[in-house]
Amino acid sequence: MDWAIKLKKFDFSIGWFSFLFSLAIVLMLSIISHFYIQESIQTINAKEEHLIACYANKLTEKAKNIDELKQLLFGTQESFEYKIAIIDSANKLIYSSFDKTPTYNLSKVTYLKGDSVFYNAIKHFNDVGNVKVVFEKKLDYSSVKTKIIVIITSSLLFLIGCAFFLYFHIKNIHTHITTQLDAFFKDAIHEIRTPLGVVQINLDFLENNNKASMPLKRAQGGLRNLTSVYESLEYCIKNKKIKYKKESINLTDFIKNRIDFFKVLAEIKDVTIEDAIEDAIEDEITIYMSRIELQRLIDNNLSNAIKYSKESTQISIHLYQESTFLYLKFSNYGDTIQDINKIFQRYYRGDDDIRGGFGLGLSIVEHICRIYDIHIEVSSSEDGYTTFLYKIPQKNLQRV
Length: 400
Fold this sequence. Notes:
Shape: rod-shaped
Mean pLDDT: 83
Largest sheet: 5 strands, antiparallel
Low-confidence stretches: 3-7
Strand content: 15-25%
Radius of gyration: 41 Å
CATH class of the domain at 211-397: Alpha Beta
Strand order of the largest sheet: 2-1-5-4-3
Structural class: alpha+beta
Number of helices: 10
């Protein structure tokens, strides 16, 4: 259970960023380490070529004949480290500690082949004359292998440590910012509750005592838009602490009621709202969910559709049933959504122009859909025709 809680609290986006950033650092260090290892290997190769040449020259200079050479080799440590072969001018093997006759490379004095270093040259012995001598020694890369193991282990530990450090550091910053924003929203909804009520009362008074006018409509539209924002802020703050009670709601009547609420906003922008509810569904549909959460789902879609619709266009709301699912679709003509995957992120806004907003509406919608297992499909064509489709499962259409 503890692991399930920890996994639920784990922020995968921050986790992936921390891991990938740490991995990039490790890869850069690995490239440097690669050149370091290559340099170490080249140093060992150069050192061994020098040592085998020195040993061969020292040995052949001291020994005047083959017997003296054998005596110098007998019982020494070098006799176990080096293999030696002496070949006469007729390519006949005079002496050898090799398992088989070695090849002779006349073009080079010292050279590398496989995991061995070789020395070959023509030397003179009093008893056999000029002969070819070949020396071989196995290369020891154990120090390089140790370095590789240390580098790999250090890289893995650095990757894990750096990823965890970055994750918790960024997580703390993210949590602090989110906490500050939530505190701001909490203070904001507390401060605007009373002024909203005062404005609503006075607008109702003006509407009852004066004939309808465009300034009055604009004031009413602004108030309703502000009310919708206020209710979204309130839900955003309270949903973590309150479990909203579910109830049976007549969905068709509820949607029509919300359309009536936003009609004044649509009229100001010269946008019409068309609902295809009565034509598509003969019987009343009852949905079982929280009234507040259902209102947030519908209101945020309607307010967004009005906000982002082009003037003199139409918003369409369709409600229809297929198989065991109920489909609720909002369509409008506006600007093409450039990145559909980001629009449900909290505080994300598709633009920075006068339409403004906090970027909370669709994140609230996505949160509510997760609660009720409602599937969301979004499409936006190049001409700006955008559709939000909500696939509501059967279990939400009856009391469970």
